Amino acid sequence: MSLFALIFSIGILVDDAIVVVENIHRHIHLGGRKLVEAIPLAVDEVGGPTILATFTVIAALLPMAFVSGLMGPYMSPIPINSSMGMLISLAVAFVFTPWLTYKVLRRVVEKRAASATPPPAGENHATASEEGREDFRIDCSGAWSVHFLRGRRGRPLRWVLGVGVLLLIGGSVSLSLFPTGVVLKMLPFDNKSEFQVVVDMPEGTTLEQTARVLGELGRYLGTVEEVTDYQIYVGTAAPINFNGLVRQYYLRAGANVGDIQVNLVDKKHRHRKSHDIALSVRGPLQEIGKRYDANVKVVEVPPGPPVMSPLVAEVYGLNYPGQIRAAQEVRRIFSATPDIIDVDDTVEAPTERLIAHVDRAKAALLGVSQQAVATDLNTALRGEDVSYLHSSTAKYPIPLRLELPVADKAGMATVLDLKTRAQGGQLVPLSEIVDVERTQRENAIYHKDLLPVVFVFGDMAGVLDSPLYGMFEIFAHLRDQAIGGEPLEQFFIRQPDNPYSYSLKWDGEWQITYETFRDMGIAYAVGMILIYLLVVAEFRSYLVPLIIMAPIPLTIIGVMPGHALLHAQFTATSMIGMIALAGIIVRNSILLVDFINLEVASGIPFQEAVIRSSAVRAKPIILTALAAMLGALFILDDPIFRGLAISLIFGIMVSTLLTLIFIPVLYYAAFRKRLEPAETPA
After folding, report:
1. Which of 172, 303, 539, 607 has its CA 20 to 30 A from that of 453?
2. SS3 136
3. Whether residue 137 has pLDDT greater than 60
4. Distance, CA of 629 to CA of 632 (rounded, Å)
5. Are 571 and 638 in contact (CB under 8 A)?
């Protein structure tokens, strides 16, 4: 994450230097002063807005360092490292950049000044070529902007511009409300070189049957082109990995469970991503599993903070058998919902339990102790080391183990045919003194926060590929479903209040998504407040900061259509990009407003100052925008940080262009009556 923070901030770090160098270049061409005199004036002119703009970017980014939950440590390197980089770049822009500009351009400027013809006395020291270029930019800017100014006559067009911008913002936001527009997801799948196949057989299944199923699944996986090899683990868990740690796969043990660790060729040598491969093999693997009554799940390595499953429903209630019935109904709805896959629960299948009762009276008459019966049964079923074989070629003694063959353990009659030795020396069949009681094995009862709970798991695949949409669709079905004669109450962000009624708490990826976007939304709001306070302190006005921050919603016009255009999901990294855009775009507004104030203070008419602001400040604004977009371009191909790159590229591109139009017009509309002479009636 620290490396991505560096890549993310590359384009932003040069913004201060770009503004300083561009203004120095402008003052050089205005002429009239030596280079050593022009550089301090140029730096001083943009010093205030540049410092303010840098701190606004830091104010937008730094609150993200306080995001809580699992995503906090995952995201904190971006705001911390980027903020430190911004402070260092600001110092470099004011100390090192002017010095280096003087060293590089000194000879060029002196040579140009020596070859230039001295201007006649009383004329402007600006060269004719520079005057022509600046006048041309002002004329071009005035050609479109004068229609929005013109006092009262431009008011209808200003209203049209404002309504048009609001419609564009509303249309962009609406893209997230339709699944066909922009899909919302926590984090997209990364292109890994492995995935895992988890198999659960019904309780009571023999180890040999489980191995047979896993072997058939493995033979199919061997036919997949991208699979290099696979390892099968029967009756035990695969070596602990990222999934095993959080989803607790490393605790799996028993004759009815198994894992297959599947390794793929390097992503450079295959056309399909690991997620596409997992989707393609899931159907055939589950068809094989159905023939043996096996629950087969294809589990991918999670891209970010992992959860037990993308979709988790926690069922609470008055008693555990009722919770199991409610969970089975929830699971049925899971399975009936389109695109919901890998459905499972923590309900264990009923399995038979055999209890051997020793007839104490009869055993006492025959001289057989209960301990002898228990020892013989344990030896027959579990085995016992009765002696050791010592060999000159073996480092350790070789145990001689006594145990019934696996086939003879299948039936209790074979075990009871064994004979035990009585105290008198005679052999007594176990069947004469042992009665077998057939009962049901007690199943595990899961608890969370000291309350008994039944979990239902699932995932979502298909076009949307986001568990949030599947969760809300299941929520709609369960809302009309009666459990135990009453509706099943559902909770999203807190535990159920009443433990005496059946209820459901949604967990999984939804919980992390909610906590992350909640904290990031709070960080976004704190950033806005800090930016507002910084701008208030600089401009001594409560209205000017609102105008300067007005382009922040304009970023949505670029961000959402950009995701839709590239068929990308809006993820947590996309939200990071939007938060960063708040500080980046405010920089442009500060440069424009500060220049307007400088021009008005120098005696330029207000309308002309507004026109000149877009013309003169367009170059540094566009250069800084291109630098930030170019820096984001390098992470556009990364599956995880693609959303961040799209937000920066499209958000900066669209909002920068609109800012050059919208901010001067908005500032003119707000301060026209105060800074422009009153219009004389026609």
Report:
1. 303
2. helix
3. no
4. 5
5. no
**Rounded to whole angstroms, how far apart are CA atoms 402 and 383?**
5
Residues ≥6 apart with Cβ < 8 Å to 594: 46, 48, 49
Distance from the Cα of residue 644 to its chain's centroid: 10
> Hey, is 32 helix, strand or coil?
coil
> What 3-state class would DSSP assign to 440?
strand
Burial of 12 (0-12, 13-18, 19+ CB in 10 A): buried
Q: What is the DSSP letter of 188?
A: P
Q: How far is CA 435 from CA 112, 329, 353, 357, 463, in A?
A: 112, 39, 14, 5, 59
Question: Phi then psi for 421, rounded to 5 degrees?
Answer: -90, 125
Q: How far apart are CA 428 and CA 416, in angstroms?
A: 11
Q: Name the β-bridge partners of 233.
A: 259
Say if residues 69 and 519 touch (Cβ distance below 8 Å): yes
CA–CA distance, 383 with 211 (Å, rounded to integer): 22
The count of other CB atoms within 10 Å of the CB of residue 603 is: 7
Phi, psi at 308, each rounded to 5°: -60, -35
What pairing do the DSSP bridges indicate for beta strands 486-487 and 384-389? unpaired
Q: What angle do CA 602, 618, 126 make, to 5 degrees?
A: 50
Judged on CB neighbours under 10 Å (0-12, 13-18, 19+), 484 is middle
Q: Which token pair is 551?
A: 């382009």
How many other C-beta atoms are found inside a 10 Å radius of the C-beta of residue 545? 23
Asked if 517 and 134 count as a contact pair (C-beta separation under 8 A), the reply is no
Provide CB contacts within 8 A for 682, sequence distance 6+: none
Alpha-carbon span 204 to 256, nearest angstrom: 7
Q: Provide the 3-class DSSP secondary structure of residue 84.
A: helix
Judged against a pLDDT cut of 80, whether residue 304 lies above it is answered with: no
Two tokens, residue 450: 């000291």
Share of the chain above pLDDT 90, in %: 12
Which structure tokens are listed for 281? 């093999």
* Least confident span in 107-111, 366-370, 385-389: 107-111
What is the gyration radius of the CA atoms in the chain, in angstroms?
37
| pLDDT for position 664 | 86
CB 238 within 8 A of CB 249: yes
Please give the pLDDT value at position 117.
56
Q: Is 484 left (phi over 0), alpha (psi -120 to 50) or beta?
A: left
